[in-house]
Design a protein that fits this description.
189 residues, 2,3-Dihydroxybiphenyl 1,2-Dioxygenase, domain 1, 4-stranded mixed β-sheet, 8 strands
Length: 189
């Protein structure tokens, strides 16, 4: 068996925008994420915003392509879930969460009050593309250490899926699903 990957966060989360200018103004201006790289290849632009420690959020913008905006309110379950729900940005301290909340309000961005989920605390807002966003602070940092599947602070589902029950019982999964690449133009069904 090969060794586990040494994950270092998200290199980039790629989303789509119909308006790169508004996206730059929001992510660089309102959120304070410096724009760190840009690519323009034919009809496509691809811009990257720094989120610290090698992590970025990136946007594609295709010229002359109509891209519908999301209509999912931040922090509220949709009537019919889509494949993408929201992205949450991590902040190192609770005071940073309150500072971001104040910054967003200064820039006219509607933002929720603090929501306490127990092990994580969050605020919710939406970008100009209608993408539901969250900023979060880990009250109990769960990453970078071995998982404790008996931890009552972090594992709150009282009826977990079979895979989590396996991990809680043995520390291992009984099976892992295989996947296949989808050929271009093939029917994914």
């Amino acid at each position: 068996m090969t060794t586990d990957p040494r994950w270092r966060g998200i290199n980039h989360l790629a989303l789509i925008t119909p308006d790169m200018d508004a996206t730059v103004r929001f992510y660089h201006g309102a959120l304070g994420m410096p724009i760190v790289a840009t690519i323009n290849a034919g009809p496509m632009r691809h811009y990257f915003f720094d989120m610290g420690a090698g992590n970025t959020i990136a946007f594609f913008c295709w010229s002359d392509a109509e891209v519908p905006t999301f209509e999912k309110p931040a922090g509220i379950p949709p009537e019919f879930p889509a494949q993408f729900d929201h992205v949450s940005f991590n902040l190192p301290e609770l005071r940073d969460l309150f500072a971001l909340q104040a910054r967003l309000r200064e820039h006219g961005v509607e933002v929720t009050e603090l929501v306490d989920h127990g092990f994580v605390q969050s605020i919710y807002f939406t970008d100009p593309n209608g993408i539901a966003l969250e900023a979060s602070y880990w009250v109990t940092e769960p990453t970078g250490r071995p998982a404790d599947y008996a931890d009552g602070e972090m594992f709150l589902d009282t009826d977990p899926v079979p895979a989590v029950r396996e991990l809680m019982a043995t520390g291992e999964l009984a099976s892992i699903p295989a996947t296949q690449l989808v050929d271009e133009g093939a029917d994914p069904a």
